[in-house]
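Per reviewer request, we include the raw input and output of the structure prediction for the construct analysed in the revised manuscript.
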Amino acid sequence: MRFSKNTLKNGLRVITVSLPNLESATVTVWVKTGSRMEENRVAGISHFLEHMVFKGSKKRPTAKEIAEEVDAIGGEFNAATNKDWTNFYIKARAGNLSTAFDVLADMVLNPILAEEEIEREKGVIVEEIRMYEDTPMFRIGDVYEQLAFGKTPLGRDIIGSEKTVTGLKKDDFVRYRNKYYYPENMLLTVAGGVDEKQVLALAGQHLGQLKKAARSVSQPLAFKKQQKKAQVKLHSKKKEQAHFILGFLAEGRKYKGKLIQAVLASILGGGMSSRLFSEVRERRGLAYSVRTSVERYEDTGYIGTYAGVDVARIDEAIKVTLNEHYKLASGEAPISAKELKKAKEYIKGHLALSLEDTKDINYFFADQELYLPRIETPEAIFKGIDKVTIEEVIAEAKKIFRPEKLNLAIIGPYGRPERFQRLLK
């Protein structure tokens, strides 16, 4: 998959992925800031600002006017906030690329931030917070990261708290935008039925007026590992099902062995024939859903296994899950050549399928451009995965699956966490 990278005069980077056979295209604006960049007092402002961009802009003063213009070209638009980035996108027919640029740039660069809209949206976000609280499958990830990353910006919930959200004022949004919304700290990605010249012309027209930063953009505080032993966090809640994530601290985005760790995670819980799915669900009937994945930030990450289980059998589920990790690391359950090949093809297949969506193509290239020294194409990543050996996977398992890197987060109707702490010894 070919791509081109250019930089506008104001410092804004532009990545174009031209796919002439497609009739659609996705335009995405990225800002290299998220919840880990926030001060405690305004926790959740990155996510709140994401909402406010849709509430009215200079050319289109109301949310309805923005929505009507996107609907008029049959497009879709949305945004997302992570702990270290925020993005905004419009996906539409390639023939309507100019309109997509115009609407998206106007929204992101010229939001009105009306005080009455801010006050109204506070109620919306409070209900969103409560929705996540009542949805353990989504909430468990936040509980896990609170445990793994502690009282650091990475340990805070992206959405903030009811207290911080309801305390935000217009001036807070203005200061935050002035601090992070600069071309040097932003990125434009466009993928689909477009060509480079067309994209650069539209980018210059609609985003070229962004002014350079008056000073260097602030960088997040580096995460420093303080953990010395296995940790447990219990979020007690009366539910018919218990949810947990059992994970081990690992490295950040720039780690050279990340493809090896991806294969390791795939072997453990990457599909319906993986070790954990076979043992936890198929053989023992302990869970409907069980999966292992790798989460990475700029300076840290983790390999975590999620499962939703019967509240009365959670002890068994945790023991089995942990045992599968240690058996792989110790060599008690060797990796066969067949199993290694299957894990590799699982990763490559899922990546290939995701890259059939222009929105996901933008994610693929933006994540690398924002945080890595250079961009690798999907083909290069496929080759890297093919090179992974059994010995390398076992070495990673031995290095990562250690008690002093272990964290267990649980949501369920339990009184005290001590019973679960004992399971980890």
